[in-house]
Amino acid sequence: MTRIELSVTGQAPPERADAARNRRKILDAAARLVAEQGPQAVTMNAVAHAACMGVGTVYRRFGDVSQLLFALLDDSEQRFQQSFLTGPPPLGPGAPPADRLRAFLHALADRIVEQREIMQLAEAASPSARYTSGVYATLHTHVSMLLREARPEADTAILAHLLLAPFVPSLMEHLTIGRRVTPERIKAGIDDLLGMEHLTARTGDGS
């Protein structure tokens, strides 16, 4: 079977020097606000003030708060993508597809738990941004590829969406903060979810 490996997405295209400096100043200012006051403090006006530039420049560069917050996640997102696209197994290439899928979903859960506040604000500002972003496209394509290798008979495009659906910051906040569920218990639940196909198969056989 031919394996398709993806490239890392979310990397900014080449920019003019002045545009790159403005982008860096805006992101640094937003990062300071998050560190000092939390992600709720990030507004276009607050970032413009912290970056010592006009708010129009911030809007022209990032469009809205959701795009700015997603940009703040780019560096960690690129490292995450590198780990599952080119890193060591079982997360990276070289392990069986089922093992890679399990490792990927575990790592994704860890990432969302760690970044849940800023991710939740970004998605709340623009709920559809998750599904139209290049980041989500990469996650979906990667999961689809692993499913296609493990279960070629399945509708892997839909199954990948369904597997990714629980991995949203609002659910992770509800579980870890509201219900005090540990990351280890979440990962055990992921393993149970991945193992349900065997229960379904036995039920369908009448055994």
TrEMBL record:
DNA-binding region, residues: 43-62
One Pfam family named in its UniProt record: TetR_N
Keywords: DNA-binding
Record SUPFAM superfamilies: Homeodomain-like, Tetracyclin repressor-like, C-terminal domain
HTH tetR-type domain sequence ranges: 20-80
Keyword field contains DNA-binding: yes
Entry coiled-coil feature ranges: none
PROSITE patterns to which the protein is assigned, alphabetical: HTH_TETR_2 (PS50977)
DNA-binding in keyword set: yes
The protein, known as: TetR/AcrR family transcriptional regulator
Organism name: Streptomyces noboritoensis
Lineage, top ranks: Bacteria, Bacillati, Actinomycetota, Actinomycetes, Kitasatosporales
